[in-house]
Amino acid sequence: xxxxxIEAHVRRLPAIDARWTPRPSSREELERxxxxxxxxxxxxxxxxxxxxxxxxxxxHDPDKEFGLRGLQRGMSLERILRLVEDxxxxxxxxxxxxxxxxxxxxxxxxxxxxxxxxLALAARRGESVVLATGHPTGLAHLYHQLALFLVTxxxxxxxxxxxxxxxxxxxxxxxxxxRWDGVAMLTDGREPRHxxxxxxxxxxxxxxxxxxxxxxxxxxxxxxEAGVETISIADVNDPALLVARAQGRTEHVLVxxxxxxxxxxxPVFLGLSAPTLGHAPA
Length: 282
Prior knowledge:
By secondary structure, the chain is an alpha/beta fold. The chain has one domain (4-12, 24-277). It is built from 11 helices and 9 strands. It has helices spanning 4-12, 27-37, 47-58, 62-65, 77-88, 105-125, 140-153, 199-207, 217-225, 240-246, 266-277, and strands spanning 41-42, 102-103, 129-132, 165-167, 174-180, 183-187, 212-216, 230-234, 252-255. The strands form 2 sheets. A 7-stranded mixed beta sheet has the order 4-5-6-3-7-8-9, sandwiched between helices.
């Protein structure tokens, strides 16, 4: 059941329009739309933020680790930057300390189609898929439409996290795992929260053990740490999930700007849904 907190949040989001209807599309169309919406192109996060977050990860900052242990093993700042630029499809100037970071649209389409093949398999098998996001505004439509699509295609989307609530000392509120239809979010009882925390997913997995998780930030990190197969989303300034992939702990990580309007992620959705429908973009 959707709570009053989530209902108020959803009312503030832009409407979901016909662009989100799964249909055949070309790679060129998807790439153009990714650039037009800012999902690809010049990233919101500049180079100093990307470098700084990578160094904080190396320094064991829990906010950057997303609940994953051992990420520093075999890693250096140079190697992490290489992982980011490879995933984003554009070079990072090693001599610069400030300036823009670019994300090319081609790798986003490729990663979406590859992850979509795994989602198609989940639908054919009737597997259980848990969806959860620490980006309750920007990525809300992408997760919501994907959850509805997966159920229609034959997968199960369990009500993971329903009723989970806990209190921390020195806080004036409880934490809740709340849901917009099939998508879990962390709320403080007043609004959904942008979060890197892994503890919500840790609690969810104590109650439900799905076949697959589709998530970001600490929701994804906790699932990977628990050994659950995970498809994740990462921005260029969040390298933890890319490091986990380089360590062989996860396979599918989609890298794109996660701070644009929620209605601009429809090309990612079309890429993710295409394999299930047999709509391979040419």
